[in-house]
Amino acid sequence: MTKTVPTGILYGLGIGPGDPGLVTVKAHSILTRVPVIAYPATLEGESMARKIVAPHLDDAANLERIEIAIPIPMVEERDPGREAYDAAAQEIAPHLNAGRDVAVLCLGDPFLYGSFMYLFTRLADTAQIEIVPGVSSLTAAAAAARLPLVGRNDSLAVIPAPLDDGEIIARINAHDSVAIIKLGRHLPRIRKLIESLGLEGEARYIERATMEGERAIALSAVGDDAATYFSMILLHRRGEATP
Amino acid sequence: MTKTVPTGILYGLGIGPGDPGLVTVKAHSILTRVPVIAYPATLEGESMARKIVAPHLDDAANLERIEIAIPIPMVEERDPGREAYDAAAQEIAPHLNAGRDVAVLCLGDPFLYGSFMYLFTRLADTAQIEIVPGVSSLTAAAAAARLPLVGRNDSLAVIPAPLDDGEIIARINAHDSVAIIKLGRHLPRIRKLIESLGLEGEARYIERATMEGERAIALSAVGDDAATYFSMILLHRRGEATP
What we know:
The structure is a homodimer of 243-residue chains.
Chain A: E1 9-14, H1 25-31, E2 36-41, H2 48-58, E3 66-71, H3 79-97, E4 102-106, H4 116-123, E5 128-132, H5 137-145, E6 156-160, H6 165-173, E7 177-181, H7 187-196, E8 203-207, E9 215-218, E10 231-236
Parallel strand pairs in A: 1-4, 1-5, 2-3, 2-4, 6-7
Antiparallel strand pairs in A: 7-10, 8-9, 8-10
Helix pairs in contact in A: 3-4
């Protein structure tokens, strides 16, 4: 493939769990020089990712910057998300072809339940892509709960709450430490599963780790209506952190 | 407990997987102001953690800084490690009591297989401790392999290689994505296990992610003598990243 103009680099930019201080030095450097940023947003244009990096963008306030909001429908069906990422890929590609670097903001890490992977699969064949890993909400939640997640030869399972009861129970039973993510409306069901295993005393609920309004409490103290998008349950079955 | 002097803060400081750029802005800020840093080292005093943050320490080259190397015996028995952390806790405590903040450098994240948890358990009752999460080698390896780790409702297992064959096979079978860590001398055995499951074609080997000498290749292309301390295998059983 011959190119007359050097193409821009597409950055999958991990920006961490919420605290702007948990953006990496490398991500900060990229944010203060790229001419195009893109980020997931609500249909109304609100973007948590954009908010997290705002102080860093201000460090290069004079930079002329194009911003692309990617409106993601918050529904469980696949098709609306597919269309949003198709459209975003089409909006980003011309910037790359014109030699402009584009940073796509990703909450947490781009490849750990990050939406960037949907752009990655769409653009990997034609664009030069660099993944910049970020701090995950998983370890941010453990820090908020003051709960060492895994040590020594403990194994860890990360389990999305929408899975079936049987799948969740089997995975909990196979591991020492467990993180249950994407709680949302599944919280009451997950709580019952954990109770049925006799593990409620071991479970902690963490919400908005490193963000304003962070809380980390015993699962038993949480109301069934509590779960937000930024929440998870951490659970230790056994395992220990003392050498 | 009455204290006449404000005690120092003990930071469990995640410094990321190896690239100094993957240190967070918050960790950088702490590194350039704390009067005491501590870090794991070999018995000969070599410290990968100290090396990673060296450029950041240079940003405050005029700061008088006390350095505590924690010599960790690289053996599988528990007792030598126990003694090293006992001694380190005893060396750190007087600085905190004298009001000096102490940052303990942790490769990756302090609570995800991080050695900081051993100091945490020893000092949590008497010291004011703040955990600063860091970028994990897990997602750095996925980035190096250009391999989205988990998306949507995929589940993830992180499995230490020293576990028994049966425990490893059960955990691989229960998940969509798998990371096998702490390979060391277990690499030939783990490779055979993966072959016996017919999954060798899905497995990638990543070494020294984000460090000098990084490589990410098919597991089938790796020699049995290859595994270093900074290596892991990533494996996708099913799951997919396209919405």
